[in-house]
Amino acid sequence: MEKTFSDIPDNLISIKDFIRWGASRFSEADLFFGHGTTTALDDAAAIVLHTLHLPYQLPGTYLEARLTKIEQEKIVALFKRRIEERIPSAYLTREAIFAGLSFYVDERVLIPRSPIAELIQEGFSPWLQDARSVLDLCTGSACIAIACAFAFPEADVDAVDYSRDALAVAEINVNKFELNGQVKVLHSDLFANLPDKQYDLIVSNPPYVSLKEWQHLPKEFHAEPAMGFKGGESGLDLVIKILAQAKFFLSFDGILVVEVGSSAQTLQDLFPEIPFNWLEFEQGGDGVFLLTSQQVNQFHELFNRSLALLCQETV
Questions:
Q1: Which residues contact 161 (CB under 8 A, 6 or more apart)?
Q2: Do 186 and 70 fall within a single domain?
Q3: Co-location of 181 and 48 in the same domain
Q4: In terms of DSSP bridges, do strands 133-137 and 199-204 run parallel, antiparallel, or are they unpaired?
Q5: Tens of pLDDT along 104-144?
Q6: Mean pLDDT across the chain
Q7: Which of 1, 151, 208, 269 is deepest in the core (most CB within 10 A)?
Q8: Could you tell me the CATH number of the domain that includes residue 166?
Q9: Is 274 part of any domain?
Q10: Are residues 163 and 22 part of one domain?
Q11: What is the pLDDT of residues 92-105, one digit of tens each?
Q12: pTM score, two decimals?
């Protein structure tokens, strides 16, 4: 590795050259992608363009632009860290794109990458006609809350997290988009400290990774805060709590949307009688379910019994 980065090859001149060279080095190093980028080429492009303060939708003609020596050195230094430390590129650039918006991120929060972004951009149609109140549980960087604020400009949005570190990042993003009057950042263990109100939309991307799965995730995932992943032995501890308590916070025509990712089958097996609406995405992704307020009410006792069982097991 030292040999690879000891000198910048003389034939690397343009933006395109550095993106191609970085992608080759990333593939050679067998890095994992999936933190806002899906390929070595995307990852290299994110680092190069961010370092040059250029937009991701850069016109092709600019790709031939020549880089200064200082620009080259900055890019190569980040390439080196990406490979040697296995740090996701979003942490290196302090930026992640979600629902077409640029968010500040650092190691205090998970990197935004949920397929829920597609639902937000579609206004949760056809299940939701409008939303006057939105609750984002386990908000992290507040990317979902903020994207919902843009999708529903008349809605009050509560962004909730148990991690005060995460809430500090959420505040940075709320201030960045000047949404202080619309998005409230709240410290709460799920619903525990919330005001007595009902929401037209409750959306959440909670920790849902089982302990066994967590131990075998690629190194890049372990650069992120562990509490953002670990959902208990089965991965469903927080999900069950959300299902059991959502009844008291959903409006009559409200909907509950939760990402459970790799634990989707575990959840369906746990509640075989419940008709979870597993959503499909044109842009990729899965493991997101939707329940109406009526369904949440209908199966409340079942969710409650499951929560009681969970509490007994964790005592």
A1: 138, 139, 140, 167, 170, 185, 187, 188
A2: no
A3: no
A4: parallel
A5: 999 999 999 999 999 999 999 999 989 999 999 999 999 99
A6: 94
A7: 208
A8: 3.40.50.150
A9: yes
A10: no
A11: 999 999 999 999 99
A12: 0.93
- 158 contacts 135 by C-beta, under 8 angstroms: yes
CB atoms within 10 A of CB 251: 16
Instruction: Say how far apart CA 89 and CA 87 lie, in whole Å.
Output: 6
Task: Retrieve residue 157's tokens.
Answer: 């949005």
Which one, of 309, 145, 195, lies nearest residue 243 by Cα? 309
Per DSSP, which regions of the chain are E strands? 96-98, 101-103, 133-137, 156-161, 183-187, 199-204, 250-259, 277-278, 288-292
Q: Residue 1 — pLDDT band, cuts 50, 70, 90? A: very low
Where residue 123 falls (left for φ over 0; alpha for ψ -120 to 50; beta otherwise) is left
Mean pLDDT of 8-32: 93
Mark whether 166 and 305 lie in a shared domain.
yes
Domain containing residue 27: 2-84
Last residue in a domain, options 63, 84, 105: 84
Give the burial string for 53-86 (b: 16+ CB within 10 Å, else e). Answer: eeeeeeeeeebeeebeeebbebbbebbeebbeeb
Same domain, 6 and 117: no
The DSSP secondary structure of 111-140, one letter per residue, reads PP--THHHHHHTTTTTT-S--SEEEEES-T
Say whether both 22 and 104 belong to one domain.
no
Q: Say yes or no: 106 and 76 in one domain.
A: no
Regarding whether 229 and 126 lie in a shared domain, the answer is: yes
